[in-house]
Amino acid sequence: MGSRGGLSSVKNKAPAPIQITAEQLLREAWERKEVESTKAPKQKITDKNELREYRQGKRKDFEDRIRMNRTHLPLWVKYAKWEETQQEYDRSRSVYERALDVDYRSHTVWLNYAEMEMRHKFVNHARNVWDRAIALLPRVAQLWYKYAFMEEMLGNFAGARNVFERWMKWAPDENAWMAFVRFELRHGTTGNARNVFERFIQSFPTIKAYIKYARFEERQRETGKAREIFERLSDELPEELVTGDYYLAFAKFEERAREPERARAIYKYAIENIPKAEAQELHSAYSAFERQRGDRAGVEEAIYTKKRIEYEEKLAENPRNYNAWFDLARMEEANSTPEKIREVYERAIAHIPPPDEKRYWRRYIYLWINYATWEELEMGDLERARQVYRSCLKSIPDKHKRFSFSKIWLLAANLEIRRHDVAEARKLLGQALGVAPKEKIFRGYINVELALGEMDRCRRIFAKWIETNPYGVTAWKEFAEMEASLGETSRARAVLELGVSQDELDMPELLWKTYIDFEIGEDDMDAARKLYDRLLEKTRHGKVYQSYAQFESTNGHVDKARKIYRDGDRALKSAITEASAGTDGESEGLAITLKQERVNLLKAWKDLETKAGSEEGLAEVEKKMPRKVKRKKPLLDEHGNTSGWEEYYDYVFEEDDEAAPHLKLLQAAQSWKKAMSAQQS
């Protein structure tokens, strides 16, 4: 086809492989842009007329700009400096004066005005400008500095001093006073510098001002005068303004003056008298001082003093921080006088915990114990220790009705025995049993009487203990053990018989074991065998069967042991069947526990047959051994919904597989029974 209108047709209308964006076009245009030259053309002046025309044009430009923005002071300064470059000094002064008429408070204008006069050595003009400036702006320190510097550079020291004197009447800051001092020192007038310092500390009665004055005297090698200034500080300033910075500077001065004893006295006085919160840096300096100049005792004292402050700060935040009291008391015991140690303990025990919670009292009670122990062992004062224990017993709230502490009663009673007052010890222990009949107190009282050989008293205390808590196995057990140790076999047997005949006991298996071990110890195997039989009438626990069988095998009765293992296996099998019939989680858990007991029993039986070398018996046990399988059970959330699954190991016995149909029938019967009960309710 031909082209239309002389234009060739587009053969490929597909998009280009690389697209060019508008942003790219603009960026390339900007990068290729040529930098335009903005420099003004150079102007060459060849005669006076051209110079005059140039100046007139420049002035007209400045004046026009000033008319447009009269308050723009940098423009005035620029105008004046241009006139200065043209050596038109009168015109420059005129511009500065006009600028000051606009705003005389701009110290920048004053500075440029005076510096212009100074640059061209118009000294009187400069003085006139400075005088006017400091009269109008006396609080601008830079004006005074520049004025005094000019006079000093001119060699007019009296004039410079006069400037400083005029400045000091305005009570400037301490930098101005120090500049005055440095001026006097530069010119060797130390007496004048000292007078300036005197006026300075009158104008600024601060620790910093006095310390600067003292260091000035120190640099002049006037050690006595420097010390006098430090001493004046504590006399002339109010007591509340005298802080640790003063004592630190004073002590450092004495160190530099090679007076270590003076420095040590200052450090100690400061540490004892200033608030603890301000003493951290002081303690660090004191410790460093003692390490450098002191002996071992001094170094240790510095360390202990610092630690004492740290403990006091902790106790100020929390007076019931008993750990901090313990640490402080131990430190004082190692380093302080008895009076100081007693003071710490008395302060500590004065902070009584809340009366409602025993847990707050446990740590507190040990403060009393440490206090009494220190009085007895370190001071050898048994009477003071006795009073500490009595005060502690009185401090326990509600006369020990809410709670008590057996340790305190026993420690107080043992102290009375060490004081050879057995009657008072018995009285204390009797009171303890009256208000807090605890196991520790009964046992402690019995041990005291045993040590004294009072067996009848021990029996009465045991009887009281059993009367107080007849369900506790410990009293029966220890009572029987005491009688057995005394050779009173019939008494011991009677106690044990009475104990196991109780309807309820906290840990009956422990008492039965004690009884059986007692009979075995007496070499009465028939009595022990009867006890095992009686125990099996009360419980069918696998451990009882296992212990009984081991007892028989140890005595050479393998057949009896084998029979006991068979009886135990049957009993546990029956118990497992009953527990497996239940459908609740508790029954399932009981079944798992009983299976583990049965497995342990079978393992013990297998060990017996292995040792006996009985292949028939070993085959019997092997046939009963279970298979270990992995199972899953659902995990239920608080709403009873399944939230996951838990894996556990179970044991499958051959008898269980055979009895499975019967077991399912029992489970169905139980489920039906529960459903009927729910409908009736």
UniProtKB/TrEMBL annotation:
The keyword DNA repair does not apply. Gene3D superfamilies: Tetratricopeptide repeat domain. Residues 65-309, 327-530 form the Pre-mRNA-splicing factor Syf1/CRNKL1-like C-terminal HAT-repeats domain. SMART domains: HAT. The keyword Repeat applies. One of its GO terms (cellular component) is precatalytic spliceosome. Pfam families: HAT_Syf1_CNRKL1_C (PF23231). It is found in: Nucleus. GO terms for biological process: spliceosomal complex assembly. Keywords: mRNA processing, mRNA splicing, Nucleus, Repeat, Spliceosome. It comes from the Eukaryota. Belongs to the crooked-neck family. This is Pre-mRNA-splicing factor Syf1/CRNKL1-like C-terminal HAT-repeats domain-containing protein.
